[in-house]
């Protein structure tokens, strides 16, 4: 399920972006700005037409990329649903980037053997350029931060992380 698509979004990553909000989240962070998206049945069904619309819209020249957030994209059931979109997006838009927001932590939850790792997680990570990880923490909320809501959240450059084998934070963390 998807809860919302925002076109010409500039709040969820650099440049003009298309943002897809998925439904379903078990993190249930206190102070979440979209608690309605915790429900896995919230919103509209994600269909082939939805994906075609996203791909067609995001291919317009003024888009820098797409952002997937939620809800929680890295919930076990959501990973399988977004892998096809990201594969097609990268094939049709090789110069554009993909940002994904997750309340899960890269090293503790998403790597092989961790609780949110699935048969498609590694392949999914190959299509993601930037991963914003960590639960929203209301006690660390800071409205001055770019592209994240609380100081504990990290903006990870996954391209550099894959090259080095170590987590590399984006310069946007500063």
What does this structure look like?
A hairpin with a 7-residue loop joins strand 1 (2-9) and strand 2 (17-22). This protein has a six-stranded mixed β-sheet with strand order 1-2-3-4-5-6. The mean pLDDT is 95. Helices cover 27% and strands 19% of the residues. The chain is of the alpha/beta class. It contains five helices and six strands; from the N terminus they run E-E-H-E-H-E-H-H-E-E-H. The chain starts with a strand and ends in a 10-residue tail after the last helix.
Shape summary: globular
Helix content: 25-40%
What is the spatial order of strands in the main beta sheet? 1-2-3-4-5-6
Number of helices: 5
User: Unreliable segments (pLDDT under 50, ≥5 consecutive)?
Assistant: none
- Report mean pLDDT, rounded to a whole number: 95
Q: Main β-sheet, in a few words?
A: 6 strands, mixed
The H-and-E topology, N to C, reads as EEHEHEHHEEH
- How many strand units? 6
> What fraction strand?
15-25%
Structural class from helices and strands?
alpha/beta
Distance between the termini: 34 Å
Radius of gyration, in angstroms, nearest whole number: 15 Å
